[in-house]
Amino acid sequence: MFGRRNVGKSSLLNAMTRQDVSLVSDVAGTTTDPVEKPMELLPIGPVLFIDTAGIDDIGALGELRVQRTRQIFDRTDVGIIVTESGQWTEFEQGILTELQERKTPVVAVFNKIDLAEPGAATQKKLTDQKVTIVSTCATGGNGLLDLREALIRSAPDDFINAPPLIGDLIPAGELAVLVVPIDLEAPKGRLILPQVQSIRDILDNDAYCMVVKERELRDALERLTRPPALVVTDSQAFLKVGADTPDEIPMTSFSILFARAKGDLNEFVRGALAIEKLKPDDNILVAEACSHHPVGDDIGRVKIPRWLRQYVGGKLNFNTVQGHDFPDDLSKYKLIIHCGGCMWNRREMLSRMLRARRADVPICNYGLTIAYTLGIFDRALQPFPAALETYRQLRRQ
Description:
The protein is α/β, with parallel strands linked by helices. The chain is built from 16 helices and 14 strands. The longest helix is centred in the C-terminal third of the chain and has 14 residues, at 299-312.
């Protein structure tokens, strides 16, 4: 939700979610940081509303708030531009242009219709730009149903018909074996999101799965009366799982599944080939989508740097960013290595990939980087024929 200060963005969010999520007052600039509220919006499913600080804020602190708000553009699947009825200026048009350049669907909300109606000329201008228009009064509850319907109509197709994560790789009625190490990085008492989402997607596609630790994989495979359709492992266990899985059984990792689901797998494959060009003392950016407390053998801060240094045969300089932080200037980096992005929507990952492409900096993800440095890249891409062919063509070039 974007707009000027005090146009009613927070009131609108509270009314939409039926909760007092955002602080509301008559003082302009009450919302100082983006406020996030997850909820179920049927038939779309789980969505995240983000109430941004007024993007017309002033002063040094105001500029910091505006920078935080501008980060939200990279995450936005549907932009809601909120303004007061009767107002549509170059400011609102600038936000609309920014969203349209990113090919982001937009809903224009004219709030406070109890005070004024949007002008006919403004409505025609927005309609000509194919912008959905909704009139609301957040404090009175007017127009909220219209706004919900507009959001459902504007949602990208993959919200309603989400692309499969793993289900398309396993025929109905067949088995996938999921290898889930229980180590220091495993959360206490639960599985991590990529593993849970993979299990759900397998079930949704009428297949079934068996979950084992890496030490039990060989015995589990020997007990089966017919081989599984696919073995999926945590990338850190690639070498052992690769050794214990017969060559005729396709194998990949959870991280590579997410490279396809959240980003562009072919682009990540191109990024992995940049590892061949790395030289000692090159700078590498490691990007983690979620903040966590690093453990002693952390995958992004310890293991991947160690494997890359061994592959390159010299010292490399690693910088790490977390969450939604990402450098404006990428020019000093020879490679960006990103986590799977399981906590993100696809648009934010694609936005980062676009920024990397504009800066002419190759980008790869954790799983593909690990597979490449360990020498099992072809094997890890076996379930994805198009990506494997891209890799082989690039190698021939």
